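Notes, p. 3: input format for complexes.
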Amino acid sequence: MKILAIETSCDDTAISIIEGDEQAPFSNKIRALSNIIHSQIEVHAPYGGVFPSLAKREHGKNLVPVLHKALKEASLLRETATKNKDAEFEIRIKNILEREPELSTAFMECIPSIEIPAIDAIAVTYGPGLPPALWTGVNFAKALASAWKKPIIPMNHLEGHIIAALMKKGSDSSYFVEKPHFPALALLISGGHTELILISDFLKYKIVGRTRDDAVGEAFDKVARMLGLPYPGGPPISHLAGIFRSKKNPAESSIAFTPPMLHSGDFDFSFSGIKTAVLSHIKKTGDLTDEKKEEIACAFENAVTEVLVKKTIDAASCYGVRAILVGGGVSANRNIKNALERKIESMPGIDLFFPSSHLSLDNALMIAAAALLRVSENPYILKRKMDYSGLEADGNAGIHDAGRFEISSIA
Ligand code: KG4
Ligand code: ZN
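Output follows (411 residues plus KG4):
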């Protein structure tokens, strides 16, 4: 089957189309027919973070061009000779896109002039994320579903990041999704989340640890800002820390930040205190030379890595897991990846899964692949008859909400 997935939970407008076998999603390859990501980083960078209303406006502007590109790349774009548009259609779409005026205009200009593409379903991220940004994607999916008469598969963003860790790229545009042994543990580290999730079985999740305040990606972004580095802060911090390590042994550094909650005896995290510790260190330091920035970046990254690795390994032992899956934007961090890999070497029986670099950040390919797995588990998802008025964006959705909008039989 072919699934078109839409992801607008934060500052990336992303659409991907995949073709896969819902009967055997693990043993057959998934073909990525297209995977388009329009990043808004340049728009948000001056603010040092993502501005929700601006993200919504940008998604409204980008969604139709990104869809056009995705269909074209997948060879699913055909212009129609006659416009499929009547008064009833226009009213219906305008109603659905009532709160998205710019998107509504672009939709009416594009969709009636193209043929209904040969896809089987539309997957869309309903949460978690920035509510205004999520709503634009959800409303767009509803409008497409109505125009093309296709079912919607509502998807959880966090589940997408978890599945991304299991996707291994083949030689062409294909991917294999590996099935881990269960129980497995997911370490989800992004700009909005820091969670340890126990996966007792396929698609069965339970949170066993989480941050009590800031997410780890947020801490990277805030520390970067203090050091005068650009947004998003993860990559530049990691880069400076690497420079420091290449010049000096970090053990000889005069700066060390205490890894937060290292010995708290549970699997929770906290990253707000370390941010304050970095700030007071900077204030004391005075002149922030390039060398000082490198040293601070390294000390910060080391402290964060230490606590993430320790709690993940402790939780893995506590629950006797056979696989660890790391997902979310911060999983792109080399230092964290190296440290976890080193630890796992001495723990036979535990497989470690990281997403490939192009799938660690937000993308729609992971949402499409996760949707295929959901259909494989519950084919009724596609049979649901409804007008989707019950489908709502939920900025605070958790991993336990994955599959929330599904039905398990036909009433
Ligand atoms: O998953 P993601 O793309 O968006 C959210 O769902 O939040 O994650 C974005 C976060 C940002 O905070 C960014 O600074 C962080 O991931 N990040 C990194 C790295 N690359 C991205 N953090 C540390 N090291 C990196 N290499
Ligand atoms: Zn994300």
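The domain at 2-165+360-407 is CATH 3.30.420.40 (Nucleotidyltransferase; domain 5).
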